[in-house]
Amino acid sequence: MDQFLGGAPDGHRPPLLEALAELFAELGSRLAISREEYLAVSELIRKEPQLLARIFTKAEVKQQEMTQLIAQREGLEPDDRRARLATFLMGGLARRSVDEFFSPESTASYRTVLQQNIDALAALFDIPPALLAETSRKDAP
């Protein structure tokens, strides 16, 4: 979180999208759940949809925390639309990336899957690829 809020130890402060990509990749790399457990939880939610209300409640709290962090980093008001939208977009990319990462045919790291989805977003909105080059390099062998 310190690096997200303040930048790298060398003083480099990446653009918000790059910083969010790194933060979410780091958080995703710490997922403490196996593919089998993820699939079991997914199946349980399909069978017991009332569990979604609990999940959404917890997710809402996390979204508010992330929005506050983004607002703090960017010097925005806590309820600024841009911070809320950044949270929404990155949350959606992260959820999509988790689903892809845990799919039975996936062999890529979470960081790689997330980066591929961010690259797709960047291409869709015509964001220069160099913007996220630093984050992409961190996954290289």
Describe, in plain words, how this protein is organized in 3D.
The longest helix has 24 residues, at 51-74. 19% of the residues are buried. The protein has helices at 2-6, 16-29, 35-47, 51-74, 81-102, 110-124, 133-137. The two termini are 25 Å apart. Residues 131-141 have low confidence and may be disordered. It is globular, with a radius of gyration of 16 Å. It is built from 7 helices and no strands. The chain has a single domain, classed as Tetracycline Repressor, domain 2. Helix 2 (16-29) runs antiparallel to helix 6 and helix 5 packs across helix 6. By secondary structure, the chain is an all-alpha fold.
The coarse overall form would be globular
CATH domain fold name: Tetracycline Repressor, domain 2
What structural class should be given to the helix and strand makeup?
Answer: mainly alpha
* Rg value: 16 Å
Uncertain regions spanning at least 5 consecutive residues: 131-141
Provide the CATH top-level class: Mainly Alpha
What's the SSE pattern? HHHHHHH
The helix fraction, in percent, is 55-70%
Q: State which percent range the strand residues make up.
A: under 5%
Distance between the termini: 25 Å
Largest sheet descriptor: none
Q: What's the mean pLDDT score?
A: 84
What is the β-strand count? 0
Count of the separate structural domains: 1
**How many H/I helices?**
7
Q: What CATH architecture would you give?
A: Orthogonal Bundle
